[in-house]
């Protein structure tokens, strides 16, 4: 996608707008599978929560990926995209037993992270294969909100509770066909992965009928030129060697599973917004855009720094700007960032907008959610329409009040 392609998209579909490059997604998928080519059976389950548009799920299916889901709605989106239910894993947290049973009835792989739920489900449905999510007590991730494998996390069953798991499995005679962990997101140090992997291998030894081991994901992607990222090739080489050793010890070849989201789609995405106003104050020059944290909340929520380019003036002299939104709260995307000179009506492109941007968008301030466009084989394809005022009213029920009397 060249700058002119992006500008043409804003002309055709307006701003703000999300744009995803299918070629980048395909390249990242190939990169990940190539890193583990020494393993006989590898399964990549795309984390739907990162970007759940139906066209993206269809693209994942086309490449051969399965899906990692956390809600029955994500499961049904996957099925609507034509994904085989056997290639979908469902890893909920704190949901009702009714939802878990409904998903199980669809033929999807169930992954349980709670002793109480494990006992209830195993008692009622001992023949349905279940994966168990372990909490390895490993602190990892780029932000406390996305670190999910530590001792105080609500996710997973503690490794110290494995005797409880084994007791439930023995009493219910349920079928455990997988073990799983996910320590966090934006993990740079591959030694953290390898350390946690050893904990998962030790856990796996307790179960004799496993089909797969799921190592989660959380690989760090670059957010700007020269930024650091997880060395996926080195990690793939080291974990593949260790995984093959474990399979030999275990007595059969298991499937090595991952569930990347951000790794596959983050760098594929651009978020395009128009500059409404350039505002000079006594200390700052603000570039105020036609968007806010209702469309891109990650800088405010996680402190993430998305690279911002002025694609209307890519060769202009660089100046310092604070890029802010139109929300009636502080919604700052960048403080005193060097950006090519900005004028009103210029289009700014935010990088790494493929993951957790549209999927976390809202109608705050009663603003519409933007459209989504997929750049595929050199052409722009609209894959979600911009919302309208009718969409805001669609599920609201007006009241008829009695007139006020004196």
Automatic annotation (TrEMBL):
Pyridoxal 5'-phosphate binds at residues 218, 356. The active site is at residue 328. GO terms for molecular function: diaminopimelate decarboxylase activity; pyridoxal phosphate binding. The modification N6-(pyridoxal phosphate)lysine is found at residue 49. GO terms for biological process: lysine biosynthetic process via diaminopimelate. The keyword Amino-acid biosynthesis applies. Its EC number is 4.1.1.20. Keywords: Amino-acid biosynthesis, Decarboxylase, Lyase, Lysine biosynthesis, Pyridoxal phosphate. It is an enzyme of class 4 (lyase). Residues 24-266 form the Orn/DAP/Arg decarboxylase 2 N-terminal domain. Transmembrane segments: none annotated. Pathway: Amino-acid biosynthesis; L-lysine biosynthesis via DAP pathway; L-lysine from DL-2,6-diaminopimelate: step 1/1. It catalyses: meso-2,6-diaminopimelate + H(+) = L-lysine + CO2. Substrate binds at residues 298, 302, 329, 356. Its cofactor is pyridoxal 5'-phosphate. Specifically catalyzes the decarboxylation of meso-diaminopimelate (meso-DAP) to L-lysine. PANTHER family: DIAMINOPIMELATE DECARBOXYLASE, GROUP IV DECARBOXYLASE. Homodimer. HAMAP family: LysA (MF_02120). Belongs to the Orn/Lys/Arg decarboxylase class-II family. LysA subfamily. This is Diaminopimelate decarboxylase. The gene is lysA.
